[in-house]
Specification:
The chain has about 160 residues and is α+β, with helices and mostly antiparallel strands. It contains three helices and ten strands, in the order E-E-E-H-E-E-E-E-E-E-E-H-H. The longest helix has 14 residues.
Length: about 160
């Protein structure tokens, strides 16, 4: 598959990369849209971003697409379903996860920062990271789900 691979400051190359293997609870998504976030720009400029990025890696964490393939234990989505991706996978086991503070998870996987992201033709993530979309929601809009959720969370915290 083709992907935009980040190698370091001001060094992103479009190249062929191997798709990751599909595990029994994984979903392979044909990426339709992936936003370019301020975090991606910071990383491209050589700053650390929200999480450390170890090159080479595929950036992009605001994404939507269509399920291409699902592992045999996946039950929530199937091939052909339209989905948005939650780019932050919490471990569920650390002190923070077990105390409703998952945003401080000590073992968090960040798709597009600590793990391969959406600047690629395909993305493979665990089923728990995808959300099925209604047919009437354009995939271009759905790619902004992560962005909007951050805004809504901030508004909630400010009690506006």
């Amino acid at each position: 598959m083709k992907a935009a691979v980040f190698y370091g400051k001001h060094d992103i190359r479009v190249q062929e990369v191997q798709e990751l293997p599909l595990g029994p609870k994984d979903v392979r998504i044909a990426v339709a849209y992936c936003g370019v976030c301020g975090t991606d720009i910071h990383i491209y400029e050589g700053d650390p971003g929200a999480a450390p990025v170890t090159p080479p890696n595929i950036l992009g964490h605001e994404m939507s697409g269509i399920v291409k393939e699902a592992g045999p234990e996946v039950t929530a989505v199937k091939a052909g379903d339209r989905v948005a991706v939650d780019p932050n996978e919490m471990c569920g086991q650390c002190h923070f996860c077990r105390n409703a503070m998952g945003h401080f998870c000590t073992q968090m996987t960040g798709y597009g920062t600590t793990a391969r992201g959406g600047f690629a033709q395909y993305l493979t993530v665990p089923e728990k990271q995808v959300y099925k979309l209604p047919d009437q929601l354009p995939l271009a809009h759905a790619a902004l789900s992560e962005t909007v959720s951050c805004c809504v969370h901030g508004i909630d915290l400010c009690k506006i």
